[in-house]
Structures are given as structure tokens and as C-alpha cells.
Protein 1
Amino acid sequence: MRDLDWDDLRFFLAVSERGSISGAAKFLNVNHSTVLRRLASLEKRLGARVFDRLPDGYKLTAQGEDLRDQLRGVSEQIERAQRSLSGRDLSLSGAIRVTTTDTLMHGLLMPYLAEFRALNPAMQMEIVINNTFLNLTRREADIAVRPSNIVPENLVGRRVGCLRSAIYASKSYLKKNPKKEWTAHDWVAPGDTLSHLAQAKWMEENVPEDRIVVRVDSLVGMVAAVSQGMGVGMLLCLLADGQNDLVRLAEPLNELDTDLWILTHPSLKGVARIKAFTDFLYDRLRASDEVFRVSN
């Protein structure tokens, strides 16, 4: 028992109590593959199967029943300790470290962060603007607000909706360049550091290289370049729709939609101040016209 990973044991208990991978995944708020991976890790450490995989669900083996009996009461003790610790945190004092992208901070989040801080004056907030996932396991941040269609398996959270992209141009540019074909326009494109984005891949497939007149390594910077009449661009609607000098030339492309998530580490989701903040931000973003809502 000394060499076993408690996280693996949590997954084992969830499957044993609910009788299926899908039931355990829903309870733990993780995906199906994470549960399977944790079970495989546990069985490898034990050197024995703990479940028989049957058509109607997962049934404990003899070794699995023995392990369950040894763990009886342990999960309840840990839950009581977590409740006790979080109960000390109900005053919503202390610090929260939030990480997000420059795009989201500039175009969406700051008013809500300011509102939450005003409602909770005993709270301290640290905002980390970083366009890559920080390691929430090592507490580089407590909460991440991220646009992503692929979420790290070790994080939990809720999908708020999605961010949309469309082609825009400035009024001054269109006045000088009244062309109708996209490929006939000058284009503002994402820089190399943004080459992983769906917008960049779309441009590679649809815009001739010789029509790209400027590359920008920031989505916020791309909006500024298009606003100055340097060319048309595939921009985030979140950033571009609020610019009076910009005109949307086509409807947003569904294939470029990017999910928006509020994420934290499983060990933090029960902490009162973390839960209060994530609930608050989720409610505000779901009510915002800036985020395209999707069914959860």
C-alpha cells in the first residue's frame, strides 16, 4: 500500500462504487481515458487485475475486493479532512492566482476580475498573463481561463462556451480596396508563434503566401494592424466586433470555433475561495454577449 498512488486509488474506488468507467468519469469530472489510464497504472503497480471487464460493467476481482476492504473508511477520512480545511476558508480571504491569455484579459476578463475583487475585499488576486498552460499541479496558478479544444487531463473545470473567428477589414481599407475575392486582398496573418492556431492553419490553406503583407505574433496586435488598414484578417470576434472602424466580411467559420474553459486542479476545486471565484466567473461569462454559448 505504501507504494500506491492515492490518485489511482481514488479512481479505483469511484469505479468500484459506480460500477462503470463512465459513471466514475462523471463523478470525478474527468474524461473516460483518464479513468482507464489510472486503473492501468494501479494494476501495474499491484501486479494484479482489480476488475473483470464484463459486458454489463466492471466487477471486482478477488484482489480488487481485498483492496476495497483495506481502503474502507480511508476516503471518508480524507473527505472529512478536506471539508474541515475548506471550512476554515469560508470567509473568502486569502489569495487567488489566475492565469489567462493576453487576448482574454484584454477583450473580456478584466471587468469581471475587478467586480469579484470589489465584492470580496479580503481577497488578493495575482494575474498571470501567459499564452501557454502553466502547471497547476505545481501551483504555478490556481485557476486557468483558457481557449482550447484540448484540455490537459490533469485539470478539471467547466466549458463556458466558445470563441468565434471571422474575416474583418477596416472601413478605410475597403474604401481604397473594394475587391470582393478574399485572395485578391492584402492579408494580416498570425506570426510563427501562433502557427498552432486554427486561424493560422486556415490561412495556410486558403490565402496565397504572396498576399500576406504582415505577420503579427499576437491576436490583439492583429486587430490593431487590420484597424490601421494594413489588410484584411481572420480575427477573433471577441476582439473585433467592438471596433467601430472594422467591418465583418463574412459569417464566423464553425471550424475555427475554440472552446473557452475555466480550469483548476482537482485538489483545489473544493476550496471555498476557488469555488466562489470559478462560480462567479462562469455565471458572468455565460451571461456575456461576447461568448458564443454552446450546450454542455
Note: Residues 3 and 45 are 8 Å apart (CA to CA).
Protein 2
Amino acid sequence: MQIIIESGGTVRCIYSEEIELATIGTLTITRASHVEPDQQGCWQADMGPVGGPVLGPFKRRSDALAAEHAWLEEHWMANQR
């Protein structure tokens, strides 16, 4: 799990349950994306909430989730440094 601690004390990460984040302090959790099915039954990851593109379509939801996570690590987390 990658965690970025900004100079003002704000902590940023892609949420997971690897560690109990509440031990760091008060949490504010916001959505970075929306993984949803389309009308053809394929999956898309809409990265719009963090200013990104729509990824997909993917045949499997797990592929959309993996693409979402990879995009967030490469673009959103990297831009927060």
C-alpha cells in the first residue's frame, strides 16, 4: 500500500484494508472513480472524479478494477507528490 503524507499533514492513499487507516487520524474518504457495467454488459472505470478518462470496456469487472487501480497509482498518486 502506497501512502503519501503531505507537508500539511494530509494523508493520501488508494483505500485498502491492509492497515487500519483510522489509526492515522480522522478519515475523509472520497470516491476516485466509478466502476460500472455498460449497456452491452461490459465494465468501464470512469476516472472522472479525479480528472481522468473512462477506461474500458472490459469483459470482466475484475479487469476494470485492476485498470482502475493501475491508473490511480500511475496518475493520481504520482501527481500528489
Note: The chain has a mean pLDDT of 91.
Protein 3
Amino acid sequence: MSELADTARPVIRRGLKLQWEQPQNAYVLLYPEGQLLLNQSAAEILKRCDGVRTVADIIADIERTHSLSGIGPDVTAFVALALEQRWVEVPA
């Protein structure tokens, strides 16, 4: 896979749904065959994958919201993984 651009605008794929599950006290990614339990970091990233925000916007928002810095490589790597796993897509 080629390098993910900071200007890419990832969105959760059609047919998948990000949802808070109270019994599990966590976000899950629902898909037709089941669900994927997400850790807090993954959920924070996927909540922002709305097709409007760029990868750079997502990084900046998480850093600002959680008083973090230097998380760009980790966020980019997760979004790239999410693309490979087909949890998100980047519309043309």
C-alpha cells in the first residue's frame, strides 16, 4: 500500500457502524458478520473518520482534545491499517 496522505479524508465503510456498547463499556465496529471491540485509541480515531476531516485534521483534533503531541505517526498507521482491513475507505 502506498503512503497515506495527510489530506486523505477517511470514512467508515458503508455497511459498518461505529457504536457505543454499554454492556462492554466500549465502542464496537458493527459489521454484518459480527462486531469488533475497539480500544479507546482506535475508537477516538474512528469517531473522527467522517469523510470530511482529513488525516491531519483527525491528528490535530485528538492532540487538542487530549492534550497530546507527536501522535501523528500512530494515527496515520492506524488509519492505514483500517484501510487494509476495509473498516474505512478514502473516497476518490
Note: Residues 29 and 35 are 5 Å apart (CA to CA).
